[in-house]
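Course assignment 3, question 2. Fill in each field.
Student: A.L.
Task: Predict the tertiary structure for the chain below.
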Amino acid sequence: MSSRTAWLTLAAALLCGCAQINWDRAVYEGMRESARQSANRPGAQATPDPKLPDYDKYEEERRRVRKAE
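Answer field:
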């Protein structure tokens, strides 16, 4: 197998793997983690921890609001 074929195969595998990621959940959990870390910073940059609900409760609330519309 040539190196070009190997690189193309690797790129295709990575793209297929990324397609399987639940992006909504990943972004939401990233926001929760960032808020938690910000709340733990000392000094003027500290922000209050907003206590965001976990993703499953967030999804449940989104479904409830969509039904109400």
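Instructor remarks: The radius of gyration is 19 Å. The mean pLDDT is 76.
Grade: pending
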